[in-house]
Automatic annotation (TrEMBL):
Protein name per UniProt: DNA sulfur modification protein DndB
Higher taxonomy: Bacteria, Pseudomonadati, Pseudomonadota, Alphaproteobacteria, Caulobacterales
Organism from which the protein derives: Brevundimonas goettingensis
CDD domains, sorted: dndB
Domain of life: Bacteria
Pfam families, sorted: DndB (PF14072)
Length: 369
């Protein structure tokens, strides 16, 4: 090839009997080098989905705000044009290492990673010092539109997003997630019966709650605290005390801890073994602690007066159960919390009373507006 070419350090590999290459590209070059399909083209004539511009600022902020520890997976691209690989040695291990020369007139089209590419452009513009850092790119010879579309489908067909529970467990930048991890560790029942791998539990699971449910409920408990928590230590103490006091009033949960009953049996037969109840208890707890800051733990005894059985359809249908299945929509959490608030001898707030009016009414005492 002549001098009108880009040159990259590259490693050659083989997939499906064809050569491909892994190259390192400076971040500041990524936007200029890799192209999108024309989004005005019909979908059937493009090799990738339309760029979701709402996603780009979030990814760009992640890169720029974590400049010392961000991580980006490789882009995947096809080269439509001349290219030539020159190994550093003709034999031995180094025959797969060398330089990849790509004609400047070639079109390098992204098959996977267009949102990362757009975010890199925005992040480098906001933080130019990132420009000399590099990103790995896996490049293939272009074999036409049909092959490029198939590559996009193959790269994405088996992609599975991690569950919310495991994302929270592994996120060490999120202070709320860190608090939830500490709460789980501080409460024996949670420590032993919290599932970190999934966001929902099957009837066969021995776990009682998911980490995402504990996190969401604890976040609501702390966010609604009046007065606000002054330190992470205070928040941890409040949350651990609250959940320990709740567990003391939930005999069925205690029976799980002592192996007298399987968690799956509770999920099958009781509303309180689902995330909607955990979050509703936290919501009611916020009101209880604000109303009775000195003796709220003793007043949690009202939880024992609730018939949590799913067979108690007069209470739970259209409240926790929709079409016979547990529902965790926002209004359902409020409706379950209303039952708890009543059992704790507290009045419903005006907002809670308005949601309550959506279902078959129960006697309520609404706070004055």
């Amino acid at each position: 090839m002549d001098d009108n070419s880009f040159t990259f350090t590259a490693i050659q590999g083989t997939q499906a009997g064809a050569a491909y290459y892994v190259i390192m590209v400076p971040l500041k070059v990524v936007p200029r080098l890799f192209k999108f399909d024309d989004e005005s083209m019909p979908t059937e004539l493009r090799a990738q989905r339309v760029l979701n511009k709402a996603r780009v600022p979030t990814i760009a902020a992640y890169i720029a705000n974590n400049a010392e520890e961000y991580i980006l997976s490789s882009l995947c691209a096809s080269i439509d044009g001349g290219m030539e690989f020159e190994p550093v040695a003709s034999t031995g291990p180094l025959r797969k290492v060398g330089q990849l020369k790509v004609d400047m007139g070639a079109v390098i089209l992204i098959n996977d990673g267009q949102h990362r590419r757009a975010a890199i452009e925005e992040a480098v513009r906001d933080r130019p010092s990132l420009g000399d850092e590099t990103l790995s790119v896996v490049v293939f010879p272009d074999k036409g539109l049909a092959r490029s579309q198939q590559m996009f489908a193959d790269l994405n067909i088996h992609a599975v997003r991690p569950t919310r529970s495991i994302k929270l467990l592994y996120d060490h930048r999120d202070d709320a997630a860190a608090l939830s991890r500490k709460v789980v560790d501080a409460v024996p029942l949670f420590r032993e019966f919290t599932c970190f791998d999934t966001a929902s539990l099957s009837n066969r699971s021995i776990k009682l709650v998911t980490f995402s449910s504990v996190h969401q409920a604890t976040a609501e408990l702390i966010a609604g605290a009046v007065p606000a928590m002054k330190s992470p230590e205070e928040a941890l103490d409040r949350a651990a005390r609250f959940w320990s006091a709740v567990i003391a009033q939930m005999p069925d949960w205690q029976r799980v801890q002592t192996r007298e009953v399987a968690s799956g049996e509770l999920r099958k037969n009781y509303v309180h073994a689902h995330g909607v109840a955990l979050q509703a208890i936290a919501r009611a707890g916020v009101q209880l602690i604000a109303t009775h800051p000195d003796d709220w733990e003793a007043r949690l005894g009202g939880l024992r007066r609730i018939d949590w059985s799913r067979s108690n359809k007069a209470v739970w249908d259209n409240r926790a159960l929709v079409g016979g299945k547990v529902n965790r929509a926002t209004n359902n959490v409020t409706l379950v919390a209303n039952i708890i608030v009543q059992a704790l001898d507290l009045p419903l707030s005006p907002d809670a009373a308005r949601v309550e009016a959506m279902v078959a009414p129960i006697p309520v005492r609404a706070e004055a507006v």
